[in-house]
Write a structure and sequence with these properties.
This protein is of the alpha+beta class. The chain has a five-stranded mixed β-sheet with strand order 4-1-3-2-5, with helices on both faces. A five-stranded mixed β-sheet has the order 6-7-10-9-8, with helices on both faces. It starts with 11 loop residues before the first helix and ends in a 19-residue tail after the last helix. The N terminus and C terminus are likely disordered. The structure holds guanosine-5'-triphosphate and magnesium ion. The site of guanosine-5'-triphosphate has 22 residues, from helix 12 and helix 14. Magnesium ion binds next to loops.
C-alpha cells in the first residue's frame, strides 16, 4: 500500500514523459431519461465533496458515493483502440448494443476508451459479438472480460476526415508548468488551492479506479460468487494525488453473513466448506488463489507479487491498461472504515484537503515519503498529523473522533474494535475558525517543528496530545485499533529530518512577507520555494553558516531546558522549545 505518487516538483519530468498533456474530454452523450440526469447530479455533487466546496448542496455519505460509482463501473467497459480510430464511428458502432451515457479516452502505452453504457445488458450484448483472438505462435486463454481490443476493418476509410481524438489527462502538471502556476498565483492561499486543483484525482481518474476494481471483481467472482472488490485508501478518501496507488479490498463479507430473512421452515442450511486453523491462514489462501488467477487469466494484470507474510497480507500487481499500481487485500474492513473517516474530515472544511495535499507534496519533494516501504513517514501518517493539528486550533477546524462518535446513527464494531462515527456529513456543524491557509501552513510547520515527539503521542480520537505508551520515535495512535501505532516504522533519523524540514519551512514562510517578488519577476516564492528541495537546503546551509558557536548553542539549550516545565513548554516568545529526541 505504499504511496507511489509522483507529486513533487523534482520528479515531475518523469511523469510528463508518459503522455500528452491535454485537457480532459468528458462528454455526456445522448442518454435520455433519469440515468443521465442522475449522472450529472452525482458528478456535480461528488465534485463538491471532492473539492470540499462548502455550498448548500447536501454532501453525500461515503457509502452513497461508493455505491453509485460502483454501479456506474459495472455498466462500463475498457477498450484498447487503434490510435487513428474515428471517435464518431466507434461510438456509433458501440451504440448498437445500447445507449452510452458517458465516455472518455486516455493514453497509457496506447489509446484506451472508457465507455459507460446506460444499461448493464449492453455489455452482455457486446460480449456476445466479441471473439477470442486467434494467434499464430501463441495460445490465448479464452477469458471473457469487460476489457476489449478493437481493430479497424478498413483503416484507410475511417481516419481521413476525423479530427484527432482528445484524451483525458491523468498525470500531474510538469515541473515547469506548476512552477509557473504557483508564481502567478496571487497569494499563498491561492497557491495551495492551485496545488490541490492540479494534483487531485480527476473525475476520469476516479472512474478508471472504480472500473479497475470492478474488472478485478469479475475475476475474483469466478471463485467467490457475490464478492465485491472496493477501492479504499487515497483513491477514495479524497486525499489521493494523481498517480497514487490503487488500494483494493476484496470483501467476502456478504457471503459469510447468514441472512435469517431468507430462511423458513424447520431446517438450517449451511455450505460445506474447508476449514483452516486461523483467519490469517484463510486470508492467505484466498489471496494466493486470487493472485494466481490474476497472473494467469487477468487481462492487463502484470508483475503479480503475493506478499502473504506481511502484517496485512496482500497481492500487488500492475494493471497495465490503467497504469495503476494495485494492492489487493482482504479481511481489512478497518482500513475501509479509516478511508470513510478521512473522507468525512476532507469534506468538512475546504482547507483540510488543500493543507493535506500541500504537506503530501512537500514531504515527497524532500524525500520524506517514498514509494518503497521503509522507515519513512507515510502519507497516511502525514494526513493524521494534519487532522490532529486542525483539531488543535482555536476554535478547532475539525472535530475529534470521539465527538463524531456521539453523532453516530448506528454502532459499528469491526473485528472487535469500535469503529462507530457519524456517516451523515450534514449532521456536523461547520467550524467558526477563519484562519487563512497561509497562516495554517506556517503554524503547521511551527507546531510540528517543536512538537514533543519524545514524550507525546498524536491522537485524533481525543484531539489532544497524550503520553506515548511505547518508545517508537513517532507515535500516532491508530484511531480504531487504539493499541497500535500507525507510524511504528518511522526511525529517529527520519523523524529528525521531518522536524528539521518543518522548522526550515516555517522560517521560509515567515520571511515571505519581506521577500515576495513582483509577479513579473517570475521568481519562485511561497509554496514554489517550499517545494524546491534545493531552496530549502540552501536556506538550511545559510542558516547553519550563521549559527552561533557550539558552546553558545549548548549554553542556550541548557537554559531553555531549565526554564521549560513539563506542563507548559513554551518560552517567552510563545514558541515551543522541547527537543525532539526520543
Ligand atoms: P497513498 O497511497 O500514499 O496516496 O495514501 P494511502 O492513504 O492510500 O496510503 P496506503 O496506500 O499506504 O494505505 C492505504 C490505506 O490503508 C490507508 O488509507 C489506511 O486506511 C490504511 N493504512 C495504511 N497504513 C496503515 C497503518 O499503518 N495502520 C492502519 N490501521 N491502516 C493503515
Ligand atoms: Mg494508497
Amino acid at each position: 500500500m505504499a504511496a507511489r505518487g509522483v507529486g513533487m516538483l523534482a520528479r515531475l519530468p518523469l511523469c510528463a514523459q508518459r503522455g500528452q498533456v491535454l485537457r480532459p474530454t468528458h462528454r455526456l452523450l445522448s442518454c435520455p431519461g433519469p440515468v443521465a440526469a442522475d449522472l450529472k447530479r452525482e458528478e456535480q455533487s461528488s465534485r463538491n465533496v471532492e473539492t470540499g466546496s462548502e455550498d448548500k448542496i447536501p454532501k453525500k455519505k461515503f457509502s452513497e458515493v461508493q455505491k453509485e460509482r460502483r454501479e456506474q463501473a459495472q455498466r462500463t467497459v475498457l477498450i484498447h483502440c487503434p490510435s487513428k480510430i474515428s471517435e464518431k464511428k466507434f461510438l456509433k458502432y458501440l451504440s448498437q448494443h445500447g445507449p452510452i451515457s458517458n465516455h472518455f479516452f486516455y493514453e497509457s502505452f496506447g489509446l484506451y476508451a472508457v465507455v459507460e453504457f446506460c444499461q448493464k445488458e449492453s455489455i452482455t450484448s457486446l460480449q456476445n459479438v466479441t471473439r477470442t483472438p486467434s494467434m499464430d505462435t501463441e495460445a490465448a486463454i479464452p477469458f471473457k472480460s469487460r476489457f476489449f481490443n478493437v481493430k479497424m476493418k478498413n483503416p484507410s476509410n475511417q481516419t481521413s476526415e476525423q479530427p484527432c481524438i482528445r484524451c483525458s489527462n491523468h498525470t500531474p502538471p510538469s515541473s515547469k508548468k506548476l512552477s509557473e502556476l504557483l508564481c502567478y498565483a496571487e497569494s499563498i492561499d491561492d497557491q495551495l488551492n492551485t496545488l490541490l486543483k492540479e494534483f487531485q484525482l480527476t473525475e476520469e481518474d476516479i472512474k478508471l479506479r472504480y472500473l479497475t476494481c470492478s474488472l478485478i471483481e469479475d475475476l475474483a467472482a469466478a471463485y467467490f460468487q457475490d464478492c465485491t472488490v472496493r477501492p479504499f485508501g487515497s483513491s477514495v478518501n479524497s486525499f489521493g494525488k494523481l498517480g497514487c496507488d490503487l488500494d483494493m479490498f476484496l470483501d467476502l463479507g456478504e457471503i459469510g453473513k447468514f441472512n435469517t430473512n431468507k430462511t423458513s421452515g424447520n431446517f438450517l442450511m449451511e455450505f460445506q466448506v474447508k476449514n483452516v486453523s486461523s483467519e490469517r491462514i484463510a486470508t492467505q489462501k484466498i489471496l494466493s488463489v486470487i493472485g494466481e488467477c490474476l497472473d494467469h487469466f487477468g487481462p492487463g494484470c502484470v508483475g503479480v507479487q503475493k506478499i502473504l507474510n506481511a502484517r496485512c497480507p496482500l497481492v500487488r500487481f500492475s494493471h497495465q491498461a490503467s497504469g495503476f499500481q494495485c494492492d489487493l487485500t482482504t479481511n481489512n474492513g478497518i482500513a475501509l472504515k479509516s478511508s470513510e473517516l478521512l473522507y468525512i474530515y476532507g469534506a468538512l472544511d475546504s482547507r483540510v484537503r488543500a493543507l493535506v495535499f500541500c504537506i503530501r507534496c512537500w514531504a515527497r519533494a524532500h524525500s520524506l515519503t517514498s514509494s518503497i516501504p521503509g522507515s519513512w513517514i507515510t502519507n497516511f501518517s502525514l494526513t493524521m498529523m494534519v487532522i490532529f493539528f486542525l483539531q488543535r486550533r482555536s476554535p478547532p477546524i475539525l472535530p475529534t473522533l470521539d465527538y463524531l462518535k456521539t453523532l453516530a446513527e448506528d454502532k459499528c464494531i469491526i473485528e472487535g474494535h469500535n469503529c462507530t462515527f457519524v456517516s451523515d456529513l450534514n449532521r456536523i456543524k461547520p467550524s467558526g475558525n477563519t484562519e487563512t491557509l497561509e497562516s495554517l501552513l506556517k503554524e503547521f510547520f511551527e507546531y510540528f517543528g517543536n512538537f514533543a515527539f519524545n514524550k507525546n503521542s498524536i491522537n485524533i480520537r481525543q484531539g489532544r496530545e497524550q503520553n506515548k505508551p511505547e518508545s517508537s520515535p513517532l507515535h500516532i495512535q491508530n484511531p480504531f485499533e487504539t493499541s497500535l501505532n500507525i507510524s511504528k516504522n518511522v526511525n529517529q533519523s527520519q523523524l529528525q529530518k521531518f522536524v528539521d524540514l518543518a522548522r526550515e519551512s516555517a522560517w521560509i514562510l515567515s520571511q515571505e512577507d519581506k521577500d515576495r517578488p513582483s509577479p513579473s519577476s517570475n521568481r519562485p516564492w511561497g509554496l514554489a520555494t517550499l517545494l524546491l528541495p534545493s531552496v530549502v537546503n540552501s536556506v538550511s546551509l545559510a542558516k547553519k553558516k550563521r549559527k552561533k558557536p557550539a558552546s553558545e548553542r549548548i549554553k542556550n539549550l541548557l537554559e531553555s531546558i531549565k526554564s521549560s516545565s513539563p506542563e507548559n513548554d513554551t518560552n517567552t516568545n510563545g514558541k515551543r522549545t522541547v527537543s525532539t529526541q526520543a
